[in-house]
Amino acid sequence: MIRKNPALPDIFMLLERKESFGDYARAYGDALAKHYENNGVIVVPFMPIAFDLEFLQLISLPRELKKIGTAEGIEQPLVARQGTQLDLNRQHPFLAIFQKPEIAIYMQSQVATFNAQLRQGLSTMFPKYYSLKEANITWRLTETHQEGMHLDIFRQGAPLLPADKESHRLKLFINIDTEPRLWRISRTLPDILKNCRDQLPPALPDDVNVINNVIDRLGVLKSQPYHEIAYPGMSAVIANGETVSHEVIYGRRTVAAEFFCDKNDMLNFAQHSHLALKTWLKDGGYALAPDAAAVNAQVAHRKGSYEALMEEKRAQGS
Questions:
Q1: What are the residues facing 230 on neighbouring strands?
Q2: Residue 304 pLDDT class (50, 70, 90 cuts)
Q3: Over 90: is that where the pLDDT of 311 sits?
Q4: CA-CA distance, 230 to 249, in Å (whole number)?
Q5: Pairing label, strands 12-14, 41-44
Q6: CA nearest to 60, candidates 115, 92, 107
Q7: pTM more than 0.85
């Protein structure tokens, strides 16, 4: 399931299979949050969520809907009451996708029941994250191939807003396909800053998003060693993609969930990425760049890892 590269630190925590989220919490307690906050990767061999898996494994969505999720309203009911009448919500995305109301209604019901169990499960496994709130749960029912090793980037690498730095991010990926989902996992952000010093600018800003964009557009991760993981259906990987570099090699159907909690809920507040970044930069020997937007602008003309990979494939005629 996991092929570890001896050239890299072992950042994996592989859980023993349990039949309920409560069983996981009882067995591992605060060790889950502690490992995650230390930029570790948690591998859950079985996610105890009851839903019509066989039905979902028949569904494939076009690439333009690769990351459709709760933010786009897919969990909202398709039937709404208007006075004394019950009417179809003609604006529901599933109705546009599946055309037939009965399919759209059933799909929505399965998404809703899955998501409800997932929310409860995460609250059980990470009970100290009292303020845990959902950002988005995306249903990625599209075949995906190599996307390039990267750290998560938002808004084209623009500097984070002050409010963004107040939250701790919790992210996981659940494979719901018949085939294993193949990933590569490489260095953590503090490890990249230490080991790739000669490939990065001498001054970097106190902004995770900008730094991740610089790392991506300079192609720093392309030549880095990596671990390999193949996680089967109904297993999950819990990892903070902002601080753990990763790449999907192959997969067809997954549910990706992103949650946030107040940084004060963390077991170790000092490990909050936005707070620890200055220390990581100092340890790596970087000067502190005062203008994050200016640093981001310096690399804006370069291609990101995924775009560069696609261009390379086109040139090879593949």
A1: 182
A2: confident
A3: no
A4: 10
A5: parallel
A6: 107
A7: yes
Per residue in 224-239, pLDDT tens? 999 999 999 999 999 9
CB 245 within 8 A of CB 221: yes
Q: What is the 3-state secondary structure (H, E, C) of the chain?
A: CEECCCCCCCCEEECCCCCCHHHHHHHHCCHHHHHHHCCCEEEECCCCCCCCHHHHCCCCCCHHHCCCEHHHCCCCCCEEEECCEEEECCCCHHHHHHCCHHHHHHHHHHHHHHHHHHHHHHHHHCCCCCCCEEEEEEEECCCEECCCCECCCCHHHCCCCHHHHHEEEEEEEEECCCCCEEEEEEEEHHHHHHHCHHHCCCEECCCHHHHHHHHHHCCHHHHCCCEEEEECCCCEEECCCCCEEEEEEEECCEEEEEEEEEHHHCCCHHHCHHHHHHHHHHHHCCEECCCHHHHHHHHCCCCCHHHHHHHHHHHHCC
Task: Provide the token pair at 163.
Answer: 């409010």
**pLDDT on residue 126:** 98
In terms of Cα–Cα distance, which of 77, 74, 72, 97 is closest to 87? 77
pLDDT digits (tens, 9 = 90+) for 269-279: 999 999 999 99
* pLDDT of 317: 67
Six token digits for residue 127: 């009970």
